[in-house]
Amino acid sequence: MSLTRTILRSPAVAALTSPHGVDRYLELVNPMWAAHEVRARVVRTHRETHDVTTLTLQPTSTWPGFAAGQHVQVGVEVDGTRHTRCFSISSSDLARRMRGDRTFTITVRAHDDGVVSKHLARHAGVGTVLHLSRAEGEFTLPPLLPRRLLFLSAGSGITPVMSMLRSLVDLRYEGRLTFVHHARTPEETIFADELDEIAQLPNVDVTVLHTRLGDKRLNELQLTALAPAYADTLTYACGPAGFVETVRELYAGRDTLRVEYFKTSTLPPDDEAATGTVRFARSGQTAANTGATLLEQAEALGLRPEHGCRMGICRGCTTRKTEGTVRHAVTGAESSAPDEDIQICVSRPVGGCAVDL
Amino acid sequence: MSNPTTLTDEQLEEFGAELDAIRRRIVDSLGEDDATYIRNVVKTQRAFEVAGRALFYLPPAWPLAVAALSVSKILDNMEIGHNVMHGQYDWMGDPGLNSRRYEWDTMCPSEQWRYSHNYIHHTYTNILGKDRDIGYGVLRMDEDQQWRPYYLGNPVYATLLMLFFEWGVLLHDLEVERIVAGERTWADTKHLHRGMIRKVRNQTLKDYVLFPALTGPLFPMTLAGNAVANLVRNVWAFGIIFCGHFPAGVATFSEDETEDETRGMWYYRQLLGSANITGSRLFHLMTGNLSHQIEHHLFPDLPARRYPQIAEEVRDLCERYGLEYHTGPLRKQLGSVARKICRLALPTRRRTTPEPVEQPLAA
After folding, report:
1. What's the complex ipTM?
2. Domain of A193?
């Protein structure tokens, strides 16, 4: 296997398959053959709650593995278009070493307005091939585990925390582990059965709070009761932006806190287009949205983005938009997907917007 | 703002709006079928490529090997490369079919091609002095290009360009004629050299060293076969591309006419500055749908497989607005281009209109 890989990655093969590269040929024979790219096949799906599904993925031999808590960019084709979004890995990072299991899982909640999450959670059956990035992210356990650990999560923010929890169980972590999870109802609690099981371990305290059934949202009183020394304990928190903000306030700048939060998939477009601020991330410039095209607004700030025709035909200006909604100056089509490539010469921001310029 | 067209300003605006509407309709309907189509073309091209490379091991199959490799290169350059680099499939989000990443099986680096073709040629189509594709800096392809004795060689230069077309495309961005004229210095082209050298090295190594070497004692046969395949592609691509803007009747424009152009006028220029070629579905595929040059110039970044569908609407539009729609079979268009190449080798005879004379009503 590794000899094959060495050959496929050799300069000789690169020269023979130039200019397309060896992966462009291998994928036509079998989508699971790759020399450089990482892909995975869905080998099992499991419905966790009414709108949450866990997909078990068998990656190509090019998958370099991951650390518990990391996320991966998942590309999936929906009606001819590949959409890419980030998902946290939910399985133990020791599965391979301890059980020889090369698969891993992602757990996805179907958002009503999320093309990818809906497709993955509801339609991606066994056999579907997904495009993956390498595992990314700093939301990981330290090499030397402390004697106490605290996990805080809300909703589908449980996924990276679950990966850590499962890894710690595999590792037979002997320190004190406290886990506080917030879900709306018992029915909507992801991994509920497994959490009950893990709660049986003598060194683990699991508390699941149901906000729709009268339990309070996370607050200082609640946290002090469940984990009195929380601010001094290495803490991992993951959930929606509001939840993470609350946690941040509770820790008031203490260096014991590690957080991860989900990017909102869409920002609602404003009625009046010329509102909000436009942020040019790479140059660090920000200005009020004038309603002009992003190229013009960038140039007004003295930036010189690469471009050509200025009328939407040559694609010389294609730039990554990281946040916000833009309207196509010609077609009027609006698009709100995060991290998408847009033609800045014909894109007018609708409300606030951030681009990689 | 001048209006050099046969339409009124209002008609022009309406004309532009109708074309914008066609564009919107097509964009809205892009999906699975278009993705499947281009992937199948890629699969077919790769199959021809692998077959071509493999058949060189069977000496009697040499002509077949050359044919397969020629088809592979033509498909790669035209229906796949040219169209993918226009961004026709960027909406698919597939890095393998992305305009900024695709590299094609020819000498010219795709990045340089995208600048001179997508930007310069497609934005300033047929504007004399701005569109370097009018004669490619080598030929005289328009009456309004000032004649010089150099152009006596027009048919010879065209033949050479046809045979070495991929090299001509490679060198296009250097704008050698402007260096000769002293308008540009060699140093101005420095940013292009590295990309060019790298691509030429890769292409040459593959076609003229590695694949021939892999066939061992058949080295010379394979080398010759690869060279012939590149030549076939050169001649074919040259022929199709020259039928795009040079047949008789296709309009050119001046810089003055096109200053402060409206969107409607831009569409008008693209329409009258391009010519189609009629033919079968297979023919359209092998031309990379450049046989629909008019539709391609109106909508360069819409998937080419939609051009036949768009053509029906464009022809209807032309009829309603009384605009010409240049088209004809390959033989006719090629003949027209060949005659123009020869005719323009000689200085243009200014047609001297005789002074009107008085004439008796009855003899």
Report:
1. 0.89
2. 148-261
